[in-house]
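Quick one before lunch.
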Amino acid sequence: MKDAVHLRVAAALDLASRPLIGVGIWVGRMTSWLILAVIAAVLLTVVMNALGMNELLRWNERVFLFGRAFTINSATELQWYLYGLLVLFASTYALHTNAHVRVDLLYHRFSPRTRHLVDLTGHLVLLIPFCLLVAYLYWPQVMMSYNSGEQSNFGGLTDRFLIKGALSVSLVFMALGAFGRVLQSLAAVLDPQRAARESFHVR
Amino acid sequence: AMADGPRRIDVASVFATNNFLGAGAQYMAKEINTASDGKISFRVYEPGDLVPPFEVFNAVSTGAVDAGWDWMGYWAGTIPLLNLYGALPFGPTPEAFASWMWSGGGTEYIQKAYDQYNIKVLPCFVSPQETGGFYNKEINSVKDFDGLRFRISGLGARVLNKFGASTQLIPGGEIYLALERGRIDGAEFSVPQVDEVMGFDDITKYYYFPGWHQSASWFSLIINKNVWNRYSDRQKAQFETACRSTLAWSMTEAPPQQMKALARMQAKSGIEVRRFNDETLKALEAAWQEVVAEEMAQNPAFKEAYESLIAHAKLIEEWYELQELP
Amino acid sequence: MFAEYSLPILMVVCLLLGIFTGYPVAFVLGGLAILFAFIGDIPLPFMGMVGSRIYGGVIENWLYIAIPLFVFMGLMLEKSGVASRLLLTLQRLFGRVRGGLAISVALLGIVMAASTGIVGASVVMLGMLALPVMLKQKYKEEMACGVIAASGTLGILIPPSIMLVLMGSIMQVSVGALFKAALIPGLMLGGLYILYLLVTGYLKPDWMPLADKEDVSTDTTPLPLALLRDLVGPVFLMVAVLGSIMAGIATPTEAAAIGALGAILLAVVGRKMNYITLRDVCYDTAKSTAMIVFIVIAATAFSLVFKRLGGDYLIMDLVSATGLGPYGLLLAIMLMIFILGFFLEWIEISYVVLPLLLPVIGLLDFGMSAQATLVWFAILMAINLQTSFLTPPFGYALFYLKGITEGQVKITTIYKSIIPYVLLQLTGLLLCILFPAIVLWLPGLL
Ligand code: NA
Ligand code: NA
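Model of the sodium ion complex:
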């Protein structure tokens, strides 16, 4: 046996962290494309307004999310449905790409190991409890929105529970991502060479 | 006897308390304090202070906030019946509507709808008829609504849609600029007393009346039932007393204030006060009959309440006609 | 007197300690909210409001959509090469003027302020356009960062402004009057920035060096022609954004999308558009937007708990403890808002502190009409709150700027960069206090 136990544990932790981090990055990248849809939705609103149009299409059956018609207010509300999804899932992506703002007065002088300890502790004590508690406590409102069939009061989109649910789901998703980072940081703390060797955030 | 309920309850208002609509919450707070001999007091929170205005209903329902002070029409996306209480086009006057609420079963219909959300509702404030809105274009017939871009909510929007208007959602903070630059051709907001503050008169030409889309609108205190049920019967009666007193205040206080506000606006910005002509109003009413028929077909609860309200209002109308002096 | 306020005070202390560990600011805010909810024994259902505040205040509030749209526009411009070519040409133009580049950033900031009011969007866009070029030209880092952050905040003061709309409804003052009243003070502040840059350029030439001859001379096109060529794109974009607002085609939020489309078109025309470019712009837009919006999300949780623990009464007691005359009290209030601005967001101060102060202000006699007093006071508050975007440790403009530098610039550098501008803000505020006419002339309230 060449490796000491703590090195093998570090390797295992690192391995376990990879899918959690990987899926966070992948979903974040996929939802990033929504910005193009947001732009399209806003431009559609502008065009419909310029033409003095209220309805683009009307049909007979109730359709998921769109109800019975696509009005200028459907386009307006689509803007923030899409923007909401974009922002909520990009938060996790920003976590993995180290895009969240730090006051690095002291941080940039810390050793890699200390930095990992700071992040590790922060994720466990601050970020993960925040995400899980807010997601859990908001869930009754998601259910209420679903059960009441909450929809636009302006002839816009229906199925409000979708975007409300996305709030809780994305926060749990963020907690999972943070847990992945905790595992990775633990690996780095146990195996300082790993901390020196690897970059821990993607671009 | 039952034990007394909580001494202090948090009330999240959807309107700033220094405007007339939100001042109702403060007035009611004073009345409940008096009626309960200081054993119940409200802490009224400004909009957004606890939760954003549009989230008040859900927050009260789930118990995140004890109570809320609202315009009932805000929750029509959840309970479509509320369009009737929030903004009913060509509906009865505030007086006739109030009569239906307490002697025609109006409060029972809403309480039944609110029960499944674990909310006790106390309609305690009625605002007078709103205005027909601010316009930068003259409206001489319903043809002028074709292609008109107008900010309005509720069932009135669906009436305008029948004439080809594009009715839209503009966030409160952007209405001023949208109107000023002509992104929209007009906007309906509230009663003159409240509109005055928004400064819309500075940037539009015409202020149209009557507010056909909303003849009376109801505001209420909503309380989470887990909180409400902790109060004794005597205390519940105290709530009702304070509520009626607030209602009387809103009905008596409002009308003269509107005319004063209107005079101030005319003096300041020279906005032209106009009335839609009778022909236009008749056409709007005919379109409203179509909209209400559609709404009743889709929504049995609305149908039941609407028919009850109209039957009740007819009795009142007949009584006043019988008594009318030349 | 402060024993009963031990929890809110402790909360602020933990916040400061927390952010100086270097752990992300947003997560410190959110995490402390939850920790203190347990410490302060706040009932769980009350904490259910955090989700409602996020949904109603951040997601459903589609004024925020302008943030990703302007970020996208800025990134696309950068990738398309349009922005850098313009700045290179501006560099040729201003290459012989000390601080010329910084002054054009300030001017651009004023123009953006008149078209939108989203501080995050303005700072990010100015930063992405100008920072790389300024640093390349060997500007002192502090000089480059300061002008970007400060000019980016002008949008919250110069109309249109969400802040003034909100204040109007809280104070029951016409929004139109506030818009008019804010215009001259806003332009005056922009003018003060430019004045400062001119003076600094003269006194400290090496802080804002002229461009190297070699850098400038790579382009052999005659300057007027180059200027014409490189201005076409940006002017087209500016016309698209501002013009669509002015012509009544779009609201400010919608104009941001028109700008984004314009930037895409410029990239296509400039043959810089391909899958990789588009992908990178989308990815970076998502990251920057999330960084900005997640701070707002976490701050809303923090302030809810802070208030619930009595933080708002703490503030109130601090005011009433003074006992001064009209001007003394006004200065005390301004000082208090300034200090609060170090830690709180303008929206919190507007909603929490402003209503508490209104009765006090109504009673003060400054020798003007009640209406004029309110408008004047509102604008003084607005200038003060604009400053709060710039004051460390919680200056959101500073965080946004830090967010896009990708670790090139230290936050301490940004903190230092902003000091002169905070002093200029205070100068502007003092001028408006001494000469109310600056505020009251345009709305005709003199
Ligand atoms: Na602005
Ligand atoms: Na600050």
